[in-house]
Design goal:
- The longest helix is centred in the middle third of the chain and has 18 residues.
- The chain has about 475 residues and is of the alpha/beta class.
- The protein folds into four domains: about 100 residues, 3-Layer(aba) Sandwich (Rossmann fold); about 70 residues; about 120 residues, 3-Layer(aba) Sandwich (Cobalt-precorrin-4 Transmethylase, domain 1); about 120 residues, Tetrapyrrole methylase, C-terminal domain (Methyltransferase, Cobalt-precorrin-4 Transmethylase, Domain 2, 2-Layer Sandwich), CATH 3.30.950.10.
- Helix 6 runs antiparallel to helix 8 and helix 7 packs antiparallel against helix 8.
- It is flat, with a radius of gyration of 30 Å.
- The protein is built from 16 helices and 17 strands.
- About 35% of the residues lie in helices and about 20% in strands.
- Strands 3-2-1-4-5 form a five-stranded parallel beta sheet, sandwiched between helices.
- It binds S-adenosyl-L-homocysteine.
Length: about 475
């Protein structure tokens, strides 16, 4: 390790930046985060640096660099495009033992800039000792996605209770276990979603439980798993899935997503295939309450978005009534996922100014939809659960006043590797689908936007099974 990692205090101290271009500007922006007193020396100054000087945030000395400029500096950065000048700065700095960085030249630098992940007051610095800036950038990006945005708030929250907990829990091992429960459980989740008061209440409960052996309360996260492609999970969904003690999941949740669940977590299948409900809604509602009351971190994982045809509302209603702590994590709904992966924008300035999501689920062989509302010009209609009733749905939409040659597409297994798109018109689609031996889940999109697929289809275009919307 040639470069030793440290965090330097630069607030109010003079930092000299030699150079007046964009690279210098980038370094100045970094230094400003730590309230350094910045002096820029350069014969020419770019507009962005000039603006900072006009705003009195930095001082500019417009002239060529001279050795004496390094006097009084606590830190020096050489960021000119001229190697001899940069070398001269490095030489002057090392004469006086002042830390110096020459941009992109680790050999002349006594310190280098790490890549930074900021979660104030936490800072993570990453360095490859100057060997591979691109690798460092990739690592930084990974860390950015792994660490929740409000991780810093959690650090501040923890700091507030540190001495209190130290007083209450004398034993160091028990204290460490307690902190793990706080920082890796429902309390942390409450902080991440901005619910500080409830987080405090639960923290207190945890502290009491250490003293009295009281039951620790669990929580439920109602999480949208998206339409299938695991990369369409939200960052929060992924984190909660990986932390969960129990995952209660639906048929629509893809196997790739279930593979992200911790190996030792319990997985409970809750259905539901059409017509063979494996668990009644009431049983699921009660199951979630029971698991949470056992102190478990429960993830209730549902396909798409839990609040779109997902009965998510009913499940958390029961949790709310029973006083169980819960949160809801939205997911990409089938309409967004299938539309994007089929190359069919749901709205478009030329073709559709509105879009409705409806369910085509049959109740006693009848679909009660208020068809008259579906005859709206320039509107895209998206039908969930419309495979079984497809012929009837298309027929009723025509009868409500839509043209029989309105383009329509059925997307089978949207966003999955085996996605297929069958296109046609309101009139021809049911027959096209009948020939294609389609299986659920499928999503129906109706409207002129479907035509755009001819141009915009991008996913799985090697052997498309679709026929043109103009057929
Ligand atoms: N909450 C889910 C919808 C549940 S209803 C969401 O927001 O997406 C179930 C219906 O969603 C299915 O019958 C089907 O119409 C649609 N659906 C879900 N995933 C799908 C997928 N990957 N491809 C096509 N349709 C899908």
């Amino acid at each position: 390790m040639d470069f030793f990692p440290v965090f330097l205090r630069v607030a109010e101290r003079q930092c000299l930046v030699v150079g007046g271009g964009h690279i210098a500007y980038r370094k100045v922006q970094l230094l400003l985060k730590s309230n350094a007193a910045i002096v820029v020396v350069a014969p020419e100054i770019c507009a962005s640096l000039q603006q900072l000087a006009d705003d009195k945030r930095i001082k500019i000395v417009q002239k060529a660099f001279e050795e004496s400029d390094v006097n009084n500096a606590s830190l020096i950065i050489a960021a000119t495009s001229l190697s001899p000048v940069n070398a001269k700065v490095a030489e002057a700095a090392s004469q006086l033992n002042i830390p110096v960085n020459v941009v992109d030249t680790p050999d002349l630098s006594s310190f280098i800039f790490p890549a930074i992940v900021e979660r104030p007051p936490l800072t993570i610095a990453v360095s490859s000792g100057g060997s591979s800036p691109v690798l460092v950038r990739i690592l930084r990006e990974r860390l950015e996605t792994l660490i929740p945005a409000r991780f810093g708030t959690l650090a501040e929250f923890a700091a507030r209770f540190r001495s209190h907990i130290k007083q209450r829990v004398g034993d160091a091992t028990r204290r460490r276990h307690l902190w793990e429960q706080i920082l890796y459980g429902p309390v942390a989740e409450l902080v991440f979603t901005g619910q500080q008061l409830e987080a405090e209440r639960q923290l207190q409960q945890l502290v009491d439980s250490v003293d009295q052996g009281a039951q620790i309360s669990g929580s439920v996260a109602l999480v949208g798993a998206g339409p299938g492609d695991p990369e369409l999970l939200t960052l929060r969904a992924l984190r909660l899935i990986q932390q969960a003690d129990v995952v209660v999941y639906d048929r629509l949740v893809s196997t790739e997503i279930m593979e992200l669940v911790r190996r030792d977590a319990e997985k409970i299948y809750a259905g539901k295939a059409r017509s063979q409900h494996s668990m009644s809604q009431e049983t699921i509602n009660q199951l979630l309450v029971r698991l949470a009351k056992q102190g478990k971190q429960v993830v209730r994982l549902k396909g798409g978005d839990p609040f779109i045809f997902g009965r998510g509302g009913e499940e958390i209603e029961t949790l709310a009534e029973e006083g169980v702590c819960f949160q809801v994590v939205p997911g990409i709904t089938a309409a967004s996922g299938c539309a994007a992966y089929a190359g069919i924008p749901l709205t478009h300035r030329d073709y559709a100014q509105s879009c409705v999501f409806i369910t085509g689920h049959l109740q006693q062989d009848n679909i009660n939809l208020g068809w008259e509302h579906l005859n709206v010009a320039n509107q895209t209609i998206v039908v969930y659960m419309g495979l079984v009733g497809l012929p009837a749905i298309c027929q009723r939409i025509i009868e409500s006043g839509n043209k029989a040659d309105t383009p329509a597409a059925l997307i089978e297994h949207g966003t999955h590797q085996d996605q297929r798109v069958i296109t046609g018109t309101l009139k021809t689609l049911p027959e096209n689908v009948a020939h294609a031996q389609v299986s659920a889940p499928t999503l129906l999109i109706i409207g002129d936007v479907v035509r755009l697929r001819n141009k915009l289809a991008w996913f799985q275009q090697i052997s498309p099974i679709s026929s043109s919307a103009d057929d």
